[in-house]
Amino acid sequence: MIKFICAVLILSISVASAKEVALTIDDAPLSGGLIYSGPKRTSRFIDVLKKEKIQAAFFCNPSRLNQDDGAARLTRYANAGHIIANHTFSHPSLNQVTASEYAKEIERAESILSSYSTFKKWFRFPFLHEGRTIEKRDAIRKHLDDSGYINGYVTTDNYDYVINDFVQKAMKKKLKVDLDRACDMLSDLNLFGLEEQERLAKKHLGTSVTQVLLMHENDIEAFCLDKSIAKLRSNGWKIVSPERAYSDPTLKAAPNTLWLDQGRLAAIIAATDGTMYKSKWENINELQRELIKRKIAPTDATP
Ligand SMILES: [Zn+2]
């Protein structure tokens, strides 16, 4: 009996303390890079996710479908069971276009993406720009609500695009690039961001949340994916489905704030107690310094 109680206790402790994250991959289908062609990169994502038994969500821009077998690649993601979701037709910032132009971008993307078998009405704001004025923010919120969408929010950014750019530029210059070190940096940024958000959630909201990691369909994510997953798991992170993440009750309601570019959890905290959290990595110079410090390429690979 005591053994049984202990087992139940251990089980309930491990359930309560499980740190959960879903993987979401933006800007698909991105054109080929210097590590993978577009189709090869898609194979790599599908193979690793299948091996690790993970379902991901791909937030797509149909303006990219005519390059590098783009349309067929999205079919392959859907056939592998991954979610296809809306990231606008051509990736504008809501800060640069009118609300009605933006709404048309959402509709145009849907008219194409809805033909994929795993399409869901989840919307990811390009650049995480959700509106700089309350009027614009609310106009798009209403448009999404009226069209049956949920906000495909993120909680954590890993800045993979900065690492990927650096690596691509160095490779283009024929510099020797240490991809394992690039993967270490990416893994560290994943962990730093997730742990930081976990700490904030507990401190400001008194609870853990199921997180959503923002990734991109680029070479470095594909190349490092197995290592990134292993590092998350070895640090106690359980990778869950995007559907589970988007049913987290703490993150469900749209927060009444304009502090929206730092992810959903930061926005909810801002609306709750006024704290405006920004990651120390939300700074391109910091990231560039880190890339150089870690000797990912022999010299500064930026032009
Ligand atoms: Zn994007």
How would you concisely characterize the structure shown here?
Helix content is 49%, strand content 12%. The protein is α/β, with parallel strands linked by helices.
Write the layout of secondary structure elements.
Elements: H1 2-17, E1 19-28, H2 38-51, E2 57-60, H3 70-79, E3 83-86, H4 99-113, E4 119-123, H5 134-146, E5 150-151, E6 156-157, H6 160-172, H7 179-205, E7 211-216, H8 219-234, E8 237-239, H9 242-245, H10 264-273, H11 284-293
Parallel strand pairs: 1-2, 1-7, 1-8, 2-3, 3-4, 4-5, 6-7
Helix pairs in contact: 2-3, 2-8, 4-5, 7-8, 7-10
This protein binds zinc ion (ZN).
Zinc ion is lined by residues 26-27, 87, 91, 126.
Following the backbone from N to C, one meets helices and strands in this order, namely: HEHEHEHEHEEHHEHEHHH
Rg of Cα set = 20 Å
Structural class: alpha/beta
* Total count of helical runs of at least 4 residues: 11
- Low-pLDDT residue intervals, each spanning 5 or more residues: 8-16
Bound molecules: zinc ion
Largest sheet, strands/sense/barrel: 8 strands, parallel
Distance between the termini: 68 Å
The CATH topology comes to TIM Barrel
Give the DSSP E fraction (strand runs of 2 or more residues). 5-15%
The level 1 CATH classification is Alpha Beta
User: What is the overall shape?
Assistant: globular
Number of strands: 8
CATH homologous superfamily caption: Glycoside hydrolase/deacetylase
Helix content: 40-55%
Total domains, how many?
Answer: 1
Give the overall pLDDT as a whole number.
94
CATH architecture: Alpha-Beta Barrel
